[in-house]
Amino acid sequence: MIKLRDICRNFQVGDETVHALDHVTLDISQGDYISVMGPSGSGKSTLLNMLGLLDMPNSGNYLFESRELTTLSEEKRARFRREKIGFIFQSFHLVPRLTAAGNLELPLMLTGMLPAKRHGLVQQALESVGLEDRAQHLPKQLSGGQQQRVAIARATIMKPPLLLADEPTGNLDTHSGEDVIKTLEELNQSGITLIVVTHDLDLGQRARRQIRMVDGKVTDDIA
Amino acid sequence: MRSLDSLNYSQHALRSYPTRTALILLAMAIGVASVVILTSLGEGARHYVTNQFRTLGTHLLFILPGRSETTGGLPPLLGTSPRDLTINDAMALKQSPAIRYVAPVVLGAAPVSHGSREREVTVLGTSSDMQPVMELKILRGDFLPAGNPRIGSSVCVLGEKLYHELFEHRNPVGEWLHIGEYRYRVIGVLGSKGQTIGMDMSDAIIIPVASAQTMFNKPSLYRIMIKASHQGALDRAKKDVLRIIRLRHEGEDDVTVIRQDALIGTFDDILKTLTWVVAGIAAISLIVAGILIMNVMLVSVSQRRAEIGLLKALGAPTRQVLTLFLIEALMLSLAGGFIGLGIGFAGAGALSHWLPDFPVQIPLWSVIAALLVTLVTGLLFGMIPARQAAKLDPVIALSGK
Q1: Taking the domains of chain B in order of start, what are their residue ranges?
Q2: Which among A120, A90, A50, A94 has a CA at the least distance from the CA of B311?
């Protein structure tokens, strides 16, 4: 599904060049469940941003379903993200003034979908994460676990083949974290490719494939 | 994103910061209201002045002694001609078929007294033709009798205000009063004419022109007022005036003839320019409001970096983010503009109520111009923050750095 070939991403910090990704090569198959671990500054999040087309490599190739993505225009990258990639963030990133339903509608609105069709999909998505009775609640009226479940519903409402999660349980207590992970694993079992960046060893070890990064290089890739 | 969704999203964002939004709306509204009220005052002044000239009558010509040597300058109001304008000159003008009435004018000031009451008033020496020329109404009695203007007589016509002051409500017709050291018999009282070109007819006294020349020892006329037979005859009348006076003044063109409509046109132009200048000054406040919009939108972009990053992560292209923030700026400026129009119309209404004699009018162009400037201000000053939002790197925006 995804082929990364010799990907490099460098940042200039003062006079020094930081190699956030240093000749990374990876193959990811449809339905994979991958955890990416490593110390801070190892390049985990940069890899995730690269996979999510939020960042672009300085060199190398990124093929998604055999399509080269490094040459896409900004507009086409945005469209690709909209249709193929779902993001889950540590701090949820829900729009605070919008209700749970309003936050779920956002990706659908960006496609130009009509309101009547959107409402049906939003209802389904809320039911899938068990929050149908919280549709009109603002994020501040929801618990951390509920907020993250709204974020998962938002990330998957377009039914993307790839789900990228950056420390999805980082801001949650153990119980809520477990709920969120279970939801993500259920989504993976339904066929979505799931890539989770985490510092949490227990969470990382639940993945079927574990990648370890150090100084921008993939040092371990255990399936 | 559909247009309606974009509008809805932006208005939702504005409503989530009510104080900030209200302050910007207020600033924009004050700017627009200033434009509307100040231009309505300017336009009112223009109508007031032109109406003052129109109250003089229609299709008039004014003949002043002395010649304006340069075009476009003011006429020689004080008259520095080597030859005087005389009553004979005025009478000679009646030869022209294009001229219907000729009213010679001598102006002066003198104390008028009746009984124990005395005051200084403007004395207007003229002939019976002045009544149709200035379309004067008579409240009591008659106007100056028709006859040879070269021959004076001791009769006078009072302005309405002067009549009330000297005679209260008694009938003054037939009564005698003193103008300076001369005795005059009141033959009539003018109806309300009000102020015309700086002279309050209700506070004046009218006597035969020859009597005024004797009273003020002035052989020359202050000016001659002419009413053409009709509007189309004005050009012909002007030519005839110049021709007749040249013949009488040994071939010299030593008078200035001013058409009433030209005079109105000149004042109209001056006051129009003044209105534009006032509108321009008021428009500066709109630009200040625009800068405020830019400032607030920049703060908004800075506070909503995570939201912008999220929109990009969800697949919003740069153009979409730009559009959303631009819509916010436009909504602020236009809503402020419409509120300002409301305040402006209410203010103009209040002015009309307080100043019933002053024709406060909101010109349509000022409404359109204020809204256009508002729109352009919103676009211009909204563009910088919107571009900043659109160019934001989603990775940095989402990281909260």
Answers
A1: 3-52+265-399, 99-228
A2: A94
At residue B28, the 3 state secondary structure works out as helix
Please, what sign has the CA dihedral across residues A174, A179, A185, A191?
A: negative
Q: Looking at the domain covering A2-222, what would its CATH class be?
A: alpha beta
Rounded Cα–Cα distance for residues B211 and B156 (Å)? 10
Residue keyed to tokens 């993945």: A207
- pLDDT for residue B43 is more than 90: no
Nearest CA to B185 among B165, B205, B210? B205
Model pLDDT for residues B103-149, shown as the tens digit of each residue: 999 999 999 999 888 889 999 999 999 999 888 889 999 999 998 98
Choose the mutation target among A9, A44, A92, A109 for the interface with B, i.e. most B CBs under 10 Å: A109
Task: Tell how strand A2-13 and strand A16-28 pair up.
Answer: antiparallel
Interface test with A, best of B314, B318, B322 (most A CBs within 10 A): B314
Contact B394 A93 (CB under 8 A): no
CB-CB: which of B9, B306, B395 is closest to A54?
A: B395
Question: What are the residue ranges spanned by the domains of chain A?
Answer: 2-222
Q: What is the pLDDT of residues B337-351, one digit of tens each?
A: 999 999 999 999 998
